[in-house]
Known about the structure:
There is one protein chain. With 350 residues, this protein is an all-beta fold. The protein folds into 2 domains: 4-214, no CATH class; 222-318, no CATH class. The protein is built from 2 helices and 15 strands. It has helices at 95-99, 315-318, and strands at 4-10, 20-27, 49-54, 59-66, 81-87, 104-105, 110-111, 125-129, 145-147, 150-157, 170-178, 203-208, 214-218, 322-326, 329-332. The chain has a 5-stranded mixed sheet with strand order 3-4-5-8-7, with no helix packed on it. A 4-stranded antiparallel sheet has the order 9-10-11-12, with no helix packed on it. Strands 1-2-6 form a 3-stranded mixed sheet. It is elongated, with a radius of gyration of 26 Å.
Amino acid sequence: MGGQVWRFEVxxxxxxxxxxxxxVIAQLGGAPNVVPAPEDVRRFYxxxxxxxxxxxxxxxxxxxxxxxxxxHPLGTTVRDRFYALRDYxxxxxxxxxxxxxxxxxxxxxxxxxxxxxxxxxxxPGWRVDLGIGGWNGEKVLAEGRTFANQVFFSTFQPSTVxxxxxxxxGTNRTxxxxxxxxxxxxxxxxxxxxxxxxxxxxxxxxxxxILSAAQxxxxxxxxxxxxxxxxxxDSDGDGLADANDGDDDGNGIxxxxxxxxxxxxxxxxDGDDDGDGMADDVDNDDRRANANEDPDGDGIPNSVDTDDDGDGxxxxxxxxxxxxxVALRCFSGIMSNDPIRTFWSxxxxx
Length: 350
């Protein structure tokens, strides 16, 4: 369809003649040119990622879609892009209103060329050119995903190595960008200063094939890294999860009556459980359940370890139990919420 994006209004219950209204809202490839330049023949093979976005200025519908010729993944001629379009018309539109719309074009979108692009409220959106490091055939071959106001999508770039009769691995990238302006949102280049994000934080890359679409997961917290979610931990083995057990250590004293130092203040209300004059949150020997445990075996007890389970995510960020995964590449700490359990889902694009 010439790299075009359409909007349709389906009016259920209406006769066939008036059931659907629609119009082109964006022309981002060869259309409407009869003979477009070869590098502009962009194609959309995947379902657009649509999300409702709320801002201080107002609301808009985000439409995320990337171009790439799925039938020719090794092609290098076309200059593909990922687009984050904005549709400010939240309410249904008539055919006359659709026809009166200004069609979004490549030139009307803000290109992401810095780590802090300026995308004004009334802008039709932004785009990122998949020519970082040169136009080498990088293309989008899977659906994007918007999660917690962040856009995730993957790309594939064919190998530039010439080798007869030998298959060559390409390069895949996973991008994470702000839905508002396309800015980087995570320290993906692992720089020493995680607060100073740069263009190199837009993506991570590796050798490989075509990646699947991103999937959002919510996982249960496992503070002691024993493979059992905290919600199911059973310290005394009585068949009752600690969360539902009034005596989780099985010592015959109700948890809310435990008083380690005998000062008349129950442990759960006592800032110094063992009465040694040192606050529990800095006490390395307060005899609490997990103060001296070291589940990651790094020689640093939990009470002073900033990464208790050794997963590379600081404890302060590990409280965020959401994960966004693209194939086997996952990002945690995207948002804070009360986690629920779900299942892994991966879409094959082979």
